[in-house]
Amino acid sequence: MASVPVIQVLSKQSYEDQYIVSLPNAYPLPPLGPSSIRIKSTLLSITTNNFSYARIGHLLGWWDVHPLPPSIPAQYSDPSKFGRISAWGYAEVIESNVSGLEVGTQFWGYLPIGTLPLDMEVKLSDISGQFLEISKRREKQLPIYNRYFFYPPNSKDLEDKESMGWDALMLILFQTGYMVNRYVFAWESNELVQPGGGKPTPEGWTIQQGALGKDSIVLVFSPSGKTALGLAYSLKHDRPAESKPRLVIGVGSANSKSFSEGTGLYDKVLTYDADSGNLEEQLGLTPDTKIAVVDIGARDGAADRWAAKLKNNYSNVVQIQIAGETKAQTPEEATAGFLARKKVKGYKGVINASAMRSQAMDQIGEQRFYDDFAKLWDSVKTGGYIKGMRLVWGEGMEDLGRGWEKLCKGEVGPNEGLVFSLVEKPVGKL
Question: Residue 3 burial by CB count (10 A; 0-12/13-18/19+): exposed, middle or buried?
Answer without folding.
Answer: exposed
